[in-house]
């Protein structure tokens, strides 16, 4: 049996008590601040090691701060007295080197910095400062420090070994705490991601239910914007080139609103001659003009309770704009030749392919009406800006054709390539037509890229209405037409010119990228391409961007 002096046995007993009490703290559910403070409290109350603190490095800085403490005044903590540079003082030394820091008498140690008010006021007596590293895989991740006041009989060895045990417990708590924090952050992120995916899925389902195909971000933005406001009565203005699905979106908005059981009335202001548009919209009384043999209900009254969709609103004559504004303000319609107004309640959705702000600037559209209608603008992307949707749309339309004509047409792989490389100035409607023409003129069920190209080149002979440039489509209500040029520079009847991706372009794109220091936006601008088109060409032509 080993015998030891009474003092040593006593001290070991006390150490054991402290260790057992600390271990008990670790058995409790994890609460890092509480557990670490508990450890510091035990060191102080049971062992006389006071003002315990755990200093940790501050991320991305060269400093450390006290994160957990016991017995330090809140004023000192608040005053930030415990933030120190890692190159300073005993704590910094322990953190840098992973060694033990023992200052038997702080009054005699020049390295020691008096940070605590209590210490700075300390006059006589001996004050010992002990700091041990908190290690992880042998590397310091923080420092545990205490101070011991007065003359103690016991040697420092016992204090240091007890502190090492305490530091390893603190390290364990910190590790578990960090693990929980990381896991929680990961779960929060995953949860956000899931919510986002669910929201997109829900939107896709809703848009699919209305026959709107496509999953591209540009289309989803438009779907999101539309669905968000569908249930309100806010006027929606759909902006986009011809054939981008403005009418489809208007119908979806109506179907998603509380007015869905009521009529959806659609009128194309560009398709009706100006002199007939007034009576079409507002109605007329019998005898109002030659040929008005009976009362006629206008589209606005027909839309009562439901939604009125005014397509190509930019083509509405100024006189009718004033009349429409009155209806929107007063919620009353005056049919032509009638002196009794009819009360109406409808939601208005408008669509335009022209830049209405420009029309306002040029005096062709009333500013007050513009403000009334342009409450929720929704931009519908042209097909060339959502090339990733072309395959899905093409397959869908081909299915419809097969169903309708009871045939079994299919698209060859190179047909998809051709479809995806085309600019589609007439957008989805044009895609539909080209597929139908290709199918009907093909003597085989399998439709090749060459056949699609053939149908597309015959498109170049078709006159299409002036578009997208914001140029005047004709106030009279009959849109001006312009020849659709396949690739003539400067000719952009529908957005960008008819451009195939071809190898000859590669050198020009490379040179432009070099000239612009690989600034893709600037290169796209110089090449008269959208950024998306440029990126598509860069990937198709295998151009190295480095
Ligand atoms: N996202 C889509 N998914 C499936 N079909 C679509 C989609 N968008 C449009 N279409 C179809 O394309 C054709 C043109 O759409 P729509 O008439 O809604 O376009 P628009 O922008 O109103 O055209 P315009 O301005 O020339 O009247 C329609 O046959 C429509 O069903």
Automatic annotation (TrEMBL):
<dbReference type="InterPro" id="IPR003593">
    <property type="entry name" value="AAA+_ATPase"/>
</dbReference>
<feature type="region of interest" description="Disordered">
    <location>
        <begin position="464"/>
        <end position="494"/>
    </location>
</feature>
<dbReference type="Pfam" id="PF02954">
    <property type="entry name" value="HTH_8"/>
</dbReference>
<dbReference type="InterPro" id="IPR025662">
    <property type="entry name" value="Sigma_54_int_dom_ATP-bd_1"/>
</dbReference>
<dbReference type="InterPro" id="IPR027417">
    <property type="entry name" value="P-loop_NTPase"/>
</dbReference>
<dbReference type="InterPro" id="IPR025943">
    <property type="entry name" value="Sigma_54_int_dom_ATP-bd_2"/>
</dbReference>
<dbReference type="InterPro" id="IPR009057">
    <property type="entry name" value="Homeodomain-like_sf"/>
</dbReference>
<dbReference type="InterPro" id="IPR029016">
    <property type="entry name" value="GAF-like_dom_sf"/>
</dbReference>
<dbReference type="InterPro" id="IPR002197">
    <property type="entry name" value="HTH_Fis"/>
</dbReference>
<dbReference type="Pfam" id="PF01590">
    <property type="entry name" value="GAF"/>
</dbReference>
<dbReference type="Pfam" id="PF25601">
    <property type="entry name" value="AAA_lid_14"/>
</dbReference>
<keyword id="KW-0804">Transcription</keyword>
<keyword id="KW-0238">DNA-binding</keyword>
<feature type="domain" description="Sigma-54 factor interaction">
    <location>
        <begin position="212"/>
        <end position="440"/>
    </location>
</feature>
<dbReference type="InterPro" id="IPR058031">
    <property type="entry name" value="AAA_lid_NorR"/>
</dbReference>
<keyword id="KW-0547">Nucleotide-binding</keyword>
<keyword id="KW-0067">ATP-binding</keyword>
<dbReference type="Pfam" id="PF00158">
    <property type="entry name" value="Sigma54_activat"/>
</dbReference>
<protein>
    <submittedName>
        <fullName>Nif-specific regulatory protein</fullName>
    </submittedName>
</protein>
<dbReference type="InterPro" id="IPR025944">
    <property type="entry name" value="Sigma_54_int_dom_CS"/>
</dbReference>
<dbReference type="InterPro" id="IPR003018">
    <property type="entry name" value="GAF"/>
</dbReference>
<dbReference type="InterPro" id="IPR002078">
    <property type="entry name" value="Sigma_54_int"/>
</dbReference>
<keyword id="KW-0805">Transcription regulation</keyword>
């Amino acid at each position: 049996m080993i015998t030891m002096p009474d003092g040593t046995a006593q001290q070991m007993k006390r150490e054991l008590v402290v260790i057992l009490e600390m271990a008990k703290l670790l058995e409790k559910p994890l609460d890092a601040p509480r557990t670490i403070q508990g450890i510091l409290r035990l060191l102080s109350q049971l062992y006389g090691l006071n003002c315990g603190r755990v200093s940790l490095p501050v991320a991305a800085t060269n400093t450390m701060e006290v994160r957990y403490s016991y017995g330090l005044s809140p004023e000192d903590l608040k005053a930030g007295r415990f933030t120190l540079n890692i190159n300073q003082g005993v704590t910094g030394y322990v953190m840098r080197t992973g060694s033990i820091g023992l200052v038997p008498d702080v009054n005699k140690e020049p390295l020691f910095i008096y940070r605590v008010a209590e210490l700075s006021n300390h006059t006589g007596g001996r004050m010992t400062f002990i700091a041990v590293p908190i290690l992880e895989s042998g590397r310091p991740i923080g420092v545990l420090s205490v101070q011991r006041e007065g003359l103690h009989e016991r040697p420092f060895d016992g204090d240091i070994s007890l502190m090492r045990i305490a530091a390893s417990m603190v390290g364990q708590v910190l590790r578990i705490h960090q693990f929980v924090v990381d896991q929680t952050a990961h779960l929060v992120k995953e949860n956000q991601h899931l919510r986002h995916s669910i929201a997109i899925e829900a939107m896709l389902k809703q848009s699919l239910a209305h026959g709107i195909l496509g999953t591209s971000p540009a289309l989803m933005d438009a779907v999101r914007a539309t669905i968000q406001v569908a249930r309100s009565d806010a006027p929606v203005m759909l902006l986009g080139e011809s054939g981008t699905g403005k009418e489809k979106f208007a119908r979806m908005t109506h179907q998603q609103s509380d007015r869905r059981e009521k009529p959806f009335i659609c009128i194309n202001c560009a398709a009706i001659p100006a002199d007939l548009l007034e009576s079409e919209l507002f109605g007329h009384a019998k005898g109002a003009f030659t040929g008005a043999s009976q009362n006629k209900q206008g589209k606005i009254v027909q839309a009562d309770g439901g939604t009125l969709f005014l397509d190509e609103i930019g083509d509405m004559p100024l006189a009718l704009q004033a009349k429409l504004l009155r209806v929107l303000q007063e919620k009353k319609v005056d049919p032509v030749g009638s002196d009794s107004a009819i009360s109406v309640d409808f939601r208005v959705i408008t669509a335009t392919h022209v830049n209405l702000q420009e029309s306002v600037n040029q005096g062709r559209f009333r500013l007050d009406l513009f403000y009334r209608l342009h409450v929720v603008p929704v931009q519908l992307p042209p097909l060339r800006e959502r090339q990733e949707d072309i395959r899905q749309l093409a397959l869908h339309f081909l299915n419809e054709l097969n169903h309708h004509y009871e045939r079994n047409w299919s698209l060859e792989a190179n047909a998809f390539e051709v479809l995806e490389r085309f600019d589609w100035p007439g957008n989805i409607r044009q895609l539909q037509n080209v597929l139908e023409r290709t199918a009907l003129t093909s003597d085989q069920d399998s439709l090749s890229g060459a056949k699609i190209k053939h149908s597309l080149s015959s498109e170049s002979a078709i006159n299409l209405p002036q578009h997208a440039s914001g140029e005047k489509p004709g106030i009279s209500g009959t849109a001006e037409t312009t020849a659709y040029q396949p690739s003539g520079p400067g000719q952009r009847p529908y957005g960008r010119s008819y451009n195939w991706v071809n190898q000859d372009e590669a050198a020009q794109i490379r040179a432009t990228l070099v000239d612009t220091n690989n600034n893709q936006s600037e290169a796209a601008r110089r090449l008269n391409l959208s950024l998306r088109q440029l990126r598509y060409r860069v990937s198709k032509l295998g151009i190295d961007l480095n």
